[in-house]
Every structure is written in C-alpha cells, then in structure tokens.
From TrEMBL:
Protein keywords: Membrane, Transmembrane, Transmembrane helix
Annotated DUF1648 domain residues: 24-71
Name of the protein in question: Uncharacterized protein DUF1648
Transmembrane segments: 16-37, 57-78, 106-127, 139-159, 197-216, 222-245
Highest taxon of source: Bacteria
Keyword Transmembrane helix in record: yes
Natural source organism: Leucobacter komagatae
UniProt cross-references to InterPro entries, sorted A to Z: DUF1648
Amino acid sequence: MTHTAQLGRAKRAARTVGLIVPGIVLVASVAVQLIWLPRMPDPAATHWGPSGLPDGFGAPWSNLVLFAVLGLVTLFLPQLQLLQQRGMAPATGAGTWASANRWLPAFALGLVVSLQTNALGVALTQLDAADARETGSTLGWLIGGWVAGAVAGIVGYLLQPRVRIDPETGAPTAQALPLGEAERAAWVGEIRPSRGVAWGLAVVNVLIAAMTAWMFTVEPLAGWISLGVFALVAVSTGMCMWFSVRIGPAGFEARSRFGWPVFRVPAADVADVVTARIEPLGEFGGWGLRFAGGRTGIVPRGGEGIVITRRSGRVLVVTVDGAEDAAAVLAEATAKAAEQAAEPIEGDSQ
C-alpha cells in the first residue's frame, strides 16, 4: 500500500473515531437531556461536595450547556491536528502520520463518552425531584463515566490502523554545499516559536504571575507555592522553546538560551540529513522540546526544518528558518568527515 493510500485510510479512521462517533454520542446525549429538561427541578443541582450531597445550584439547563460545551471543545482537538496537516500538505505534496495522530482522536472519543455519561447521570439523578437538595450522590455515575471513557478510548485507539509516515519519508538527502578543499562553512541560526505561540506563552505566564500576586494577599503559603509554579513554568518555557543553532565542520549543535540543555550531533555521526515540513502536533503531540520513541524534536513551531538521522538510527527534528542552507552546510561537514575517516593513517602498511 502506498504512503498516500495509508495516509488516507488513517485519516478516515481518525475522523470516524475522533469526530463522527463522539459527535453522535454528544448529539444523542443532548437530545435526551432536552427531553428530560421539563422534568428537572428548578433550581437544579450543579455541584456535589465531599459528602456526596448537592452544594451548588443553578438553572435546570446549566448542566446540559456545560457538558455540551465541554464536548464540543473536545471534538475540536483532533480537527485542529487535521487542519494543520491540510494547511501544510500543499507545500509538501505529502503528509505525515505518527502515534499522536492516533491517540488524540481516541482521547477525544473517551473524554466525550466520559463527560456525557456524567451528564446523563446528573440529569437522571434529579429527574422528577421536587427539590434538588434531596437528590442523592452522583459518585457512581462519575466512576462509571471514567470507566466507560477509558474503555471507549482504548477501543477507539485499537480500531485505527497503525500507520507511521515521518516527514523525511521519501525526501532526498540534502545536497552538500560545494566548497573548495581548504574552504570551510558555518551556519548560525535560532529555533524559536511562532509569533502566535510566543504570545500565548506570554499570556499564560502573565496570568500565572497575576494569580501568584493575588494568592499572596489571601494566603502567604499558597502564594509561595504559586510563585514556585510560576518560576518553574517560566524557566521551562525558556529552556524548551528558544535555542541557538550552530552548524559547522564539527557537526550540529543546538543550545538552549539558558545554556542547557544542549543537543549535539557530530558530523561523523550523521547518517542522513534532509529538509522537511514539520508538524509538531501530529508527530510529537505538541510544541517545544519533545520526545517520541527514538525521535527528539526541538519544535516550538511548525513549518520548514531539518531531520537528522544518526548512525544509531535515532532522529533529531528541528524547525529552523533557512532549512535548506542549514542542511547543505551539515551535509558538507558530514561528507568531509567521511572523507577524513576513509583516509589511510600515515605510516599504515600498504
């Protein structure tokens, strides 16, 4: 089966598992709750405390709307992944597929089943009740929802074909930069997130900082804990999203702006280097510094990048501007290292 046929089959299965089936579950659940709506108490219970009894109340439709919105947001997650792929396909004429493309639809199915099981349980518990305060615990429905969601997610994962198409699949090896015998070349660049991702990270850090300041006014201990979380998030963001890259005769090096971590691939250890369009969400399940099997990704954004395969078979994927130039310099360094390794050592017998 060709890669195109495999990809088409995998996408159809993912769409069925991550959109069609959970969409049917969501519509059916909402329809049942709408039928039951006239039989709900007013106000209805919307929250249950540690005792298992209701301690929060709202309009009869509150739970219906809450669980429906959560379900719709869940359905959007796998579609974001497919939309990213569709936007990249015209530039590559191909596509990629990895484990994240398989488990995200399964996760969406499991979460929708879990949420809607809880929604129906919450409604059924209060059906025809004169006073929502007299209704019982929904703990059984909560546990049942977790179990049903887990089973649905596992089944959804197993029903999808096991397909892996890496971005470098079918891509030609980068052409070495033509240089003279005594010439050497170097390429310097950076790995950084897109403007949208950078703004998103900034907003998250600002919100955590604001919450930390507020927590200090409420409870100092909670404030210090929140400050620790803020520091951890800020440092982790800087370490995993911004890297300086240098490629030269020694090989490839990507160093975090914080000085650590550092990723190096000696020129003599490069088995192949190609340029490709990188899709972080599908291949690694997200952005930043990622690990998936024998692949390491420094992928704070999608788009052009280079894929370096080491002699051990391990792969390093990075997104950089000017990927073709970077790959050409690394290919040239690799070729020079191979030539040097093949030269006989002076004094060897002939």
